[in-house]
Write a structure and sequence with these properties.
It contains 8 helices and 6 strands. It has a 4-stranded antiparallel sheet, with helices on both faces. Bound molecules: cobalamin. Cobalamin (B12) binds next to helix 5, strand 5, strand 6 and helix 6.
């Protein structure tokens, strides 16, 4: 078993029962797509992992974490989802007993507001979820618009998932096999519909249902994410349990 396979097996053992998925990639696969200012400063072949949360994360991982935070009076934490993920991802990394692992989260920005890592590109090159962007539509119907945001679609969960973290194993370099992500939305008309739903009506969440899915967010989870963060007060949180 290669070092990278061993790392993947250990991370999966820890994170999969918590509703998270892990995929490996090489830093150069990511760097070859992104603009200079987004490149990660590691040598070719450096092993990385991307971590997703899938629908079951909310019940199996987040609610128990929240219950514990409430019981121990730690509900003042700014974003309980982010702190739950950081807690479990850093525990999983600690369990590897490895030096020089750089952990980055989706919400981390530099002082100039630039994201530390573009998790959608990472998910695509890792084979986790196809990242549909404007250039995937041949005749572009959005001539007049400057920004058309893109979206990753997971083959099993459609848009019902999130991309949370990227790990860089600075001392590990293994030759991985590049696997293309599954293209679940191959038709141009569907791709247009997907990007249209995301860019014009993302609040109705219909972009998440562009394909039929194995599992979606539960009603409780939908309620949590559709409630503005400022309204997720103690009473609201207690009612989820
Ligand atoms: C800033 C941000 C926003 C901003 C700006 C959106 C944007 N996409 O730029 C705002 C506040 C508007 C926003 C809103 C939303 N966001 Co947001 N956002 C982010 C964040 C933090 C950074 C995105 C960013 O700045 N990208 C910079 C631009 C330049 O990157 P880019 O467009 O991908 O361009 C790169 C690629 O094109 C790449 N590239 C070039 N060629 C090629 C070729 C290939 C094959 C590949 C793979 C790559 C590639 O190079 C470019 C860079 O040089 C990410 C998390 C993260 N750290 O990545 C979440 C993220 C993109 N958001 C997400 C979501 C869900 C949303 C919302 C739906 C709200 C929500 N949280 O529910 C809305 C949707 C708004 C909309 N209309 O689209 C999710 C998307 C999940 C997914 N399935 O893809 C992310 C990944 C967060 C997460 N944890 O999962 N968001």
């Amino acid at each position: 078993m290669s070092e990278s396979d061993a790392i993947l097996a250990k991370l999966k053992l820890y994170l999969e029962p918590l509703g998270m998925e892990v995929y490996m990639f090489q830093v150069d696969w990511y760097n070859q797509h992104v603009a200079e200012l987004f490149k990660l400063p590691y040598k070719t072949g450096t092993t990385c992992a991307v971590i997703l949360t899938i629908p079951s994360f909310f019940d199996t991982c987040f609610l128990p974490y929240l219950r514990n935070s409430i019981e121990t009076n730690q509900t003042s934490i700014k974003d309980p989802i982010d702190s739950c993920i950081a807690y479990h991802v850093s525990s999983a990394v600690k369990s590897l007993a490895m030096k020089n692992v750089h952990v980055m989260y989706d919400y981390e920005l530099y002082a100039n507001r630039r994201p530390k890592v573009l998790v959608q590109t990472a998910a695509h090159v890792a084979g986790a979820a196809f990242y549909y962007q404007r250039h995937h539509v041949v005749s572009d119907p959005w001539e007049q618009r400057k920004n058309i945001f893109g979206i990753c679609i997971h083959p099993q969960f459609g848009g019902w998932f999130a991309i949370r973290s990227v790990l860089v194993f600075e001392d590990i370099s293994t030759c991985l096999e590049y696997l293309e992500p599954i293209d679940s939305v191959p038709e141009t008309s569907k791709r247009i519909e997907l990007l249209q739903r995301l860019n014009d009506n993302w609040r109705d969440w219909t972009y998440r249902d562009i394909i039929s899915v194995k599992e979606k967010y539960s009603e409780k989870q939908k309620l949590y994410f559709s409630t503005p963060p400022k309204d997720r007060n103690l009473t609201f949180l207690q009612n989820l349990l």
